[in-house]
Amino acid sequence: MDHLSVDEGRRPAVGLEHLTFREEPLPVFAGAAVAGGADSVCMSVNHPGLRDPRELREALSRLDAAGVPVVMGDGFLVSPKAGLDDLRRRLDVLAELGAPLANTCAFEPDPDLRRDPGCVEDVLGEFCQVARTARVDVLIEFTPLSHVPSLAAAVGLVKRLDQPNLRILVDTLHLARAGEGPDDIRRVDRRLFGYCQLSDGPHAPGISSDYLDEAMNERVVPGHGEFPLAEVVSLLPGDVVVSAEVPLRGLQRAGVSPDERARRILDGARRVVARALSLP
User: Fold this and answer.
1) Residue of 58, 10, 5, 62 lying closest to 34 (CA atoms)
2) For residue 179, how many other CB atoms are within 10 A of its CB?
3) 43 and 15 Cβ atoms separated by less than 8 Å
4) Which of 16, 43, 205, 236 is 20 to 30 A away from residue 94, measured at CA?
């Protein structure tokens, strides 16, 4: 695949992730995405608003009117103790959203447990087969807070499973906190990458006690931190979805509106992607 490219005169395409506004009603998230000029959105299949037909209908109507597609459903948790039933139910939610991608994560917050990608191999492989029947592609998100703790672990898992609809999601925060970066991306076949969640942060090697809080509540607008974001993005395939995942609890509590937060986040993300496009 080619590197990321963009037609001359057109702004880079950047989406907006649901985690950025997870505490807001669905229509507020949708409205903020439209106000910020998002080119796509991800929605969490676990958000309570999806169980309210009126709220979901209003959110999808706002997105549809602006031509903003839902490209991914987040929140497909794979676990060595869980079977396929729950994942199948969430596939039904994904179908209602019209999203072609399902993001899986083997979240495991217990620091005393050994991280073992092998323990979720069977259920992830089976889910890929079920999702393929539903014409859905599957992503695996690595994070030190899961049984797939690094990019290296994700690459090994994807290669062992050898499922044609399984690719890797790169979250730039998790990449940094796993102690990995552009050099690690460069060593991987670009065809294994399917999505990028973009956020920034301080350079802080290793995993701190507030890592989960950082991931869920307080990231940094792309381009305002210390991560080598442009270099990472420049190494991803040309058809990869780049989407900003930047919860900003501090600004929310300070009264900054969702629309304004979305504008700041997406403006920063577009500048990062523009820089990535200029790299050789």
Assistant:
1) 62
2) 13
3) no
4) 236
Amino acid type, 223: G
C-alpha to C-alpha distance for 99 and 70, rounded to whole angstroms: 5
CB 101 within 8 A of CB 139: yes
Residue 278 to residues 8, 62, 185, 236, Cα–Cα distance (Å) = 12, 33, 18, 14
Sign, CA dihedral 161-155-135-76, equals positive
Tokens of 71: 């490209």
One digit per residue, the tens of pLDDT, for the chain of length 280 reads 344 444 444 578 999 999 999 999 999 999 999 999 999 999 999 999 999 999 999 999 999 999 999 999 999 999 888 778 889 999 999 999 999 999 999 998 777 788 899 999 999 999 999 999 999 999 999 999 999 999 999 999 999 999 999 999 999 999 999 999 999 999 999 999 999 999 999 988 667 678 889 999 999 999 999 999 999 999 999 889 999 999 999 999 999 999 999 999 999 999 999 999 998 7
